[in-house]
Amino acid sequence: MAGETTSRFWEEVVKVTLAFVAEPEQVGFPLWTAPLTTPLLASCLTAAGHEVELLDTRLCEAPLADELAATSGDVVAISFMSHSRDEAFEVAALCREQGRITIGGGAHPTVLPGELVDSGLFDHVVRGEGERTLPRLVTDIERGRRPEEQVLQGEPFDLLDYPQPRDDAAYRDVYRPPSFVSTSRAASLTGLTAEAVAELASRDDGLVDVDALRGLSAERFPATREFRSIYLELGRGCPFHCRYCTIQNDWFAPKAGRARPLADVVAEVRYFVDRYDTNYVILVDSIAPAYPDFARFAEFMKTDLPDVEFSFNCTSTHFTPAVAEALAGANCLVWFGFETASPRLLRALRKPGNARTQLRATELCAEHGIRFGANLLLGVPGETTEDYELTMEFLAETRPHSPNPNILTPLPGTDTYRRCLDEGLLRDPGHYRSWTADQIRTRGHGPLLGVDYDRVLSYHRRMLELDRTGEVVHVERGCHLKPHE
Ligand code: SF4
After folding, report:
1. C or N: which end of the chain has fewer Cβ atoms within 10 Å?
2. Is 245 touching ligand 1 by the criterion CB < 6 Å?
3. Short-list 372, 359, 378, CA closest to 461
4. Rg for the chain (alpha carbons), in Å?
5. pLDDT digits (tens, 9 = 90+) for 268-297
6. Is 229-464 in the same CATH topology as 12-175?
7. How far apart are the C-alpha atoms of 321 and 309, rounded to whole Å?
8. In the chain, what are the domain boundaries?
9. Torsion of Cα atoms, 319 then 322 then 323 then 324, to 10°
10. CA of 283 relative to ligand 1 center, distance in Å
11. Nearest CA to ligand 1 atom 1
């Protein structure tokens, strides 16, 4: 380490701003959980000796230009998905005006690097994983030997090098939740009237202490629970090629699964629970039970942290009797990517699973008392009323805790997008924003031509009516994490 410091003595130190550009998670709640991507990259950059700061556009209160002007990175690395392409390009353009070096990374730059190059707004693009390649690129910039290639393929990250913990100073600057909120915000968070909240305002400036909200009795505070959540990775990789999913591409990362050591995962969960009172862990793995130590992870959560809930994604094919047994008694929610119960559509989407595996997965959940949610896909070209009725029958029979209907917006880099483009079905091929049910209702049309959106909206509503979650209220802006002083 000392040698490294000495060898870099005469170099210009380049500071990096890592900008996470994304759509708000929900109206009124721009951010429920701090992202993994940029904090992880920040830790990797810091470990390589670089100075880093984070920016999350969802938390910007001032105009974007002012927020960017307040950052000081010589290099601005912008991470974004296709939905947020326009905002990310705006960020890049503003950075360029300020004479900064711009680097694009994340899902959209990975599938369409040429679009970034052609825009003239990005000096470099990192495709795929950036944990190794970005620090190396920044070091090269620092040493005045920038690579000639604009597009760099990210080197797969060795999960043994996963930084721990990943809440360094840059993270805490951005994702520390406020101790006080405005009365209007407190009212929207709690469901209390403005007058009732005003009584709680303990300061001259009318702000409400977040701890005072937590201390409200159940009769006065109708929230049923408060999430203080983190995202967590057990490993990476998905062996499947669902036609609508960008993960199907090999550019992101090797398809073969990679796993973090269980001891590291356990230490990370403990750290966040001890330091931030985290009470909800969201596993981001494509198929968490594919993690070789999944049963031991479930056992750890059950026995050591029974009050900390965790949720994870799974296909019906990976939900075996052994997985169900391991989860019996766990405080967890399984998200099944069922998408549809129509065998015809499952095949068309190249979705793993069939009616038999779907039913078996739900029966195993019922048998072992495991709550499950159902991700469902609507607005698929060629779908019929019969397909929808099969899905409704399945939902009525299996009663998921939480049905989650999503309306298809084809994303670049997927088979679905290519097919829709070839067939002339895309209403606007350059429009990548996700379409919500409300937007479709207001505009009277959706992203695809030839799809019956009246029918889509009708089934969307009927699926939501089956929800059994109850009221959920988040108390804090940001990631809901409260560091112990
Ligand atoms: S299983 Fe999930 S993550 Fe994997 S390709 Fe299909 S939708 Fe994508």
Report:
1. C
2. yes
3. 378
4. 23
5. 999 999 888 888 999 999 999 999 999 999
6. no
7. 21
8. 12-175, 180-214, 229-464
9. 90
10. 14
11. 240
